[in-house]
Amino acid sequence: MERQERQERPRREPRPRRRGQGELESQVLAALHAAPGPVGAAWVQERVGGDLAYTTVMTILTRLLAKGAVTRERAGRSFLWRSAADEAGLAALRMRKVLDGERDREAVLASFVTTLSADDERLLRDLLGEAGDGTATEA
C-alpha cells in the first residue's frame, strides 16, 4: 500500500474588511473636500488608500457625478474632479434622495418632523419662514 502524502494548503490571507454601503463614496468625497482644487482620479485613489483599484475610483466618481455630488472638467484625455457641495449640501442631497425614493412623501416628512428636538423644530420653522419670504440662502 502506497503512503499518501498530505499536501499542505497555503494559508489564505484574511480578506480586507468590506466597506459599508456609501462608505466608499464618503471617503472619496472627503478626499475631494481636502483637495487643493480639481484633482485627477489617481490623486483620489492615493488619498483613499488601501488596495482600491483605479477603475473602482472612476466608478465611484462617475456615480457621484450622476448624483450631482461632484463635477468634472476635461484635462487632456482625462478629467479633473471636484466636490460640488460642502458637507451640509451633500447631506441635504442624501436626504432628498431618500425622500424622492418614498411613495408617501407627506408621511415621511411628518414622521421626520415629529422626531425633531424642540431646538431643531424651531430652527426648521425659522428656515421655512425665511424660504417663504425669499430670504433663505442656498445650501
TrEMBL record:
<keyword id="KW-0805">Transcription regulation</keyword>
<keyword id="KW-0804">Transcription</keyword>
<feature type="compositionally biased region" description="Basic and acidic residues">
    <location>
        <begin position="1"/>
        <end position="13"/>
    </location>
</feature>
<dbReference type="InterPro" id="IPR036388">
    <property type="entry name" value="WH-like_DNA-bd_sf"/>
</dbReference>
<protein>
    <recommendedName>
        <fullName>BlaI/MecI/CopY family transcriptional regulator</fullName>
    </recommendedName>
</protein>
<dbReference type="GO" id="GO:0003677">
    <property type="term" value="F:DNA binding"/>
</dbReference>
<dbReference type="InterPro" id="IPR036390">
    <property type="entry name" value="WH_DNA-bd_sf"/>
</dbReference>
<feature type="region of interest" description="Disordered">
    <location>
        <begin position="1"/>
        <end position="22"/>
    </location>
</feature>
<dbReference type="Pfam" id="PF03965">
    <property type="entry name" value="Penicillinase_R"/>
</dbReference>
<comment type="similarity">
    <text>Belongs to the BlaI transcriptional regulatory family.</text>
</comment>
<dbReference type="GO" id="GO:0045892">
    <property type="term" value="P:negative regulation of DNA-templated transcription"/>
</dbReference>
<keyword id="KW-0238">DNA-binding</keyword>
<dbReference type="InterPro" id="IPR005650">
    <property type="entry name" value="BlaI_family"/>
</dbReference>
